[in-house]
User: Fold these one by one.
Assistant:
Number 1:
Amino acid sequence: MNQPVQKIAGNRLRVRACGVLADEEGIILVNHRGLYQHSFWAPPGGGINFGESVTKCLVREFKEETSLDIEIEEFLFSTEFIRFPIHALELFFKVHKIGGVLKSGNDPEFKDVQGYSLDVKKMTWPEIELLKKEELHGSFARVKSGKNILDLRGYLIL
């Protein structure tokens, strides 16, 4: 993880809201380029601001990163990731699209980090199977196949 990103996201607990927008063909994922030496694909989402509800955060983050308007269907699962200097608690929700056109957005939190960018894509399930484990959010390691991500429930330690 690069130094500027550590400064922004490290040494504190981050509580994040994340959305799973998936169908029989694939899932919307965001590639956070510049966090690591490799690609890192994860469902859209981000940090909850003090005083902001989880649902408002998720709608905002999804719009910022994907340009899509979404509606939340149901809570799926939570994850906790602790690897110094990162500590994140993430709440995952099943969502569906109500408007917008899929295109790469931005992450205001990392806008000044050199080399950081977002790519957004509806990845097919076969494309996901070709990615290396470290290139995918840790929740995908908990399922046999990427398409089973909607079956995850409960609290998962990554």
Number 2:
Amino acid sequence: ADARLERMQPLQWPQRDALCGELGAGDAGRRVRLCGWVALRRSHAGLTFLTLRDSSGMVQVTTLPEYPEVYAVVNKLRVESVVSVEGVVRLRPTESINADMSTGAIEVAADCVSVLNSVTRSLPFPITTADTVKEKFPEEVRLRFRVLDLRRPQMQSNLRLRHKVIKHIRRYLEDRHDFVEIETPILSKSTPEGARDYLVPSRVQPGTCFALPQSPQLFKQMLMASGFEKYFQIARCFRDEDLRADRQPEFTQLDMEIAFTSMEDMLNLNEELMIHIFQEVGDIKLPKCFPRLTYTEAMNRYGTDRPDLRFDWELKDASDVFLGSSFKVFADTLENGGVIKALCVPGGAKVFSNTDLKKGTVYAEASKAGAKGLPFLKVMDNGELEGVGPLVSSLKPEKKEHMLEILDAKAGDLILFALGEQSTANQVLGRLRLFIAHKLEVIDTVSLSYQELPSLYCQHILGILMRHQ
């Protein structure tokens, strides 16, 4: 009975009194008790060193020769084992200071190490600061071992950043603009939306189902009618649609509504909110006024309502160039009320072969967007044009000069054409614009400073879309 009673006692975890990442030179001489994960173990000159990690950061733990029992425990540890360490903080020798660690000036000389949870086999992937895990290991492996994946510094940083953003959204809307945060129902009635609903069968009413909300649209309209003039929530939404880079079955969005307001007021509020978040979370100063494009402008210039402005390729209307053209495909298109749009790819003539453009990767991408063909021209070093034969021969000298001027095309550039209805031509070239930009690696995703990041509003569509690349 006593043994059973002893087993029923609450588990007594060692109570830590310090965090790894918060120790510094001012703590020298202080005795501490730490808990965390073994990020690294190495031996040198008869000593064993641990890099101990917790949610605050990392610190080096050193074994002492006068504690052989500690050395025996530490020497058997595998990376990612969970331990409790007791010891004294001391300054490192000058030559041993690690400038890459916030705690690099000190170490903890351990006189007691307890194993709380040991790793008994090799890990499926390393828990490393280098962002190579995502590249080398399939997503299925990372998801199967999600606990380990979430220990990676990048994942920790992502989730903590998300938390900070949401925290500052709440503070801004509540403290500065008197918004009320209200949770709306998750189980609700199915209503027509942009995608299919996820359905949850009702046990109480057999044969009926609840629908998971694609957005809180109806509920927030009810709140406005109920007298809650300023509402927001960090809303969970569910949409049964095909996966894409920017589509998931469930996602979180900032949802808000204001009564007695205008589109201009909402645009200004969102601008101020984004400026506040970037300033508070990332110490990044955004411009006070975001550029604005109408939906029509965005589609005509970039082929999408969420244009990537990190590179400045624009779609151009070349219909005037080909009025009265002897190239039958273009002439028929214009006679039937269609348009001829063009995209100039700087340096593209030297990168893409005729095969790529006639039946290869570029042509395949255009076909996915609805193109029935992909007319193209290459501006050669001598200024002559090459490409689709009948198209080249149809261009008289004055028309050729007019076209090159419109597109600002130079030697070595590639000119792609899309024809038909305006929407189709925009969609084809908009898709090719992104595809080729990624292919040529012209989008600088590394060195571009946040101050230069393009922000814009795309307005005059159903709702208001703001895109921050």
Number 3:
Amino acid sequence: MKVPELAEVQRLLIVGMARSGIAAAQAARRVLPHIEVVIADRQAQPEAAGDTSSLEAAGIHLAMGREDHTLLDGCGLVIKSPGVPGDISLIEEAHHRGIPVWGEVEFAWRFLENPLIGVTGTNGKTTTTELIGHILSSSGCACRVVGNVGTPISSLVGRVGEDDILVAELSSFQIEDSILLRPDVAVLLNLAEDHLDRYPDIDSYFAAKMLMFANQQQEDLAVLNRDDPAIGEMAIPGAAGRVWYGRVARGDRSGPGAGRPLVYLSGGDIRYDQERLRAISAGVRSKLRSCLAPELPGRCRNGTAGGEDSKKVIAWSETALKGEHNLENSLAAAAVCLGIGLGAVEVAAGLRSFPGVPHRLQPAGTVAGVAYVNDSKATNVDAAIRALTAFDSGIHLILGGSLKGCSFERLARAATADRDKVKGVYL
């Protein structure tokens, strides 16, 4: 338990009564029974709150329709829900008074001893998180998929065995209030323009992502996309061992990701580099090894088998996911699972059987010969462009949503560059 500074806290305020805030309040009541727990929301009847009677029955005080500074009186800690911006008056006043402000993920992590695999990036987080969880589960490991995918990590506090591996999708909103958060494995998929309605500029958005790596040590792993230009330009903080993945097994690159990546595509196959796998820090693998299921007969883990064929994981055509962006997601998941000690056979089985994630290039049916595809989770320009690359021709693109402070020029160019590919755009 990583919470020594809570010993003197008598009153805890949670700001934001959405799913994560409620989970944090319930977790606080379970593990800190001596502390007064208050949850506040500026809305008098928050839509996400639902029936609040169970909260009140648990002794959690509700402050609905309030954002006044008196909520901070006697407060020793503030937990900020991910959906609450950091520049609201109540949070700024907490900082002014010197009251610590933690994110919900930071709070939960302080009470959890489980190995944590954190996945962040602008796009592909949910698919990659679910895919890692699927590979682990299908190999017999006990794991929980949590975070931005829908299950708040706080909901596990006091309720999960220490040997369960936590695979968490972590958005910038969830990471931005981290103090000591230290995933055993931190994954960065890509960086692109997004959420500029929340952050003053793109550098601030990227900086929030970097906090997931800042406290990592040498025995931890940072899994990074070598093909993403923005990642190549970033100074990734922390001391974790770097594990790169990429679509090409280039060996002539200088700077970040120089040399052959751990996992790459070659001749249509997803492959791994045995020498790089052996060189990965033993620390994280020893911590996670006790959580892995026993090795099955005939399965070789950690890339120790000899021969050229042992480098192949699976042919990309045999995997369940399609699209160039999902190739990157699959490479990331393979790099994580091989890096922590699973064998290539286990990784291949998971990649082959993964059912996909709803609302992400999800077939929605065919009507009068027209195939409809639901990609409604493509909520930014980069994600929409990636979706277009998954199809060769005959696309009718239906768009909607919010501006989020971003430019749509790149999407406009992509949608109009080839009239045979994109037949029409509907707003």
Number 4:
Amino acid sequence: MFVLTVDQRSSRRDIDRVADLLTELQDVPLVRPFDRTAGDEVQAVADDPALVVDLVLDLLRRERWSIGVGIGPVETPLPEQTRAGRGPAFEHARTAVERAKNAPGQVAAEGDDTEATADVDAALTLLATVVLRRTDQGHEAVDLARQGLSQARIAERLGISKQAVSQRLATAGWQAELAGRELVRRLLERADR
């Protein structure tokens, strides 16, 4: 199981962004939905490693959150409210989010299997580096590619040449992101065994 604990960065100097985040993520198919745990922090429970990767990358792009991924068992049955959950994955998520506040990419993972979790952590950091260095134009092209559009259709949508799309996707690290997503998914799966 995976617990995500997400803390708003610079919350004392910024508006409270938790309510908006909860609204934007309310339809994500989680085991337990994102729930405010305390002040500027939210938490959710997931069982799908691919969904965890999607959520981490979504939150990274927002550039306002420290993200902790806890890997391991949870006490069952899970309570209705996420914040009432207990178990090692919740504890690991707490440790991870604290470490994420000072980590490259503002993301960290913790779990019982320290070697497997270290691999997840390293891969998340590399993937975060790719995504966080991307320009707005790069994000725009990648978003369309993730929807399954061909480069010709992306070019049409953006009003640029197919060659320019190819260059944007290459500069944005689209292929590296695809490989990184799959790597992190597999590593999360392995760390949760």
